[in-house]
Specification:
heterodimer; A: alpha+beta; B: alpha+beta; five-stranded mixed β-sheet; globular
Chain lengths: ~150, ~80
């Protein structure tokens, strides 16, 4: 239950076991994995950096919000930090509920809010040897920076 | 004196992870602008958030000597 950062591999079976509850008729999970390209640039690997005390606080708030909003039986999110290879599991989310609709919605809420709010950063390493912190250009990819 | 910690693109641009800063700035926003000018941070304050003592705060937040200040570039987890 709750939100956790981990340097090592995410042990999905153990995480799932912790959510076992016979009130839960549905369990939705999401796995975020390291993709081999970003906006057309071949990616060789990446690293995640977190600000742990605030990441864990904000992550825990998001999981608690999802539980309250979607009447979940349980929910968990684990996010890796450090260097990851292509295909590695970077973030894992699970939400259990009496019925599937709330389980899906709760799982979706958690991953969307984690991506938007939790202080974790991703640095991609490209095939041409360059690296880049994602979303950290001076101007927003969606348009000019607000004044 | 405040303790400033840097992560991600700001750590790269500053060239270190944390430092003690003597400042006359009264708010977190003033401190960011002071450090941004000094170290040529590329991110405008509008794209950065601030945490004081491990909690999000508005830019207008005042800080006290000894506080730990973290400037948070746009996040990119997941």
């Amino acid at each position: 239950m709750g939100f956790r950062l981990t340097i090592g591999e995410i042990r999905v079976a153990a995480e799932m076991a912790a959510l076992g509850d016979t009130r839960a008729g549905g369990c939705a999970t999401f796995e975020g994995r390291v993709r081999n390209e970003n906006e057309g640039r071949p990616v060789l690997g990446l690293e995640y950096e977190a600000y742990p005390p605030l990441a864990e606080k904000e992550g825990a708030r998001i999981v608690a919000e999802a539980i309250a909003r979607f009447q979940l039986v349980g929910a968990a999110c684990v996010h890796r930090t450090g260097k990851l290879a292509l295909g590695d599991l970077a973030v894992w989310v699970a939400a259990t509920a009496a019925h599937r609709g709330d389980a899906f919605a709760g799982c979706r809420y958690i991953i969307d809010e984690v991506k938007a709010r939790v202080p974790i950063w991703k640095k991609e390493h490209y095939a041409d040897g360059s690296t880049e912190w994602i979303n950290s250009a001076p101007r927003s990819p969606d348009g000019p920076a607000p004044a | 004196m405040v303790l400033v910690r840097y992560y991600a693109v700001l750590r790269d641009q500053r060239g270190l992870g944390e430092e003690r800063v003597e400042t006359a700035a009264a708010t977190a926003g003033e401190l960011y602008e002071e450090l941004r000018a000094l170290h040529r941070f590329t991110l405008p304050a509008a794209r950065v958030r601030v945490a004081i003592n491990d909690e999000f705060e508005p830019w207008a937040c005042a800080f006290r000597s000894g506080d730990a200040v973290v400037f948070i570039p746009p996040v990119a987890g997941g």
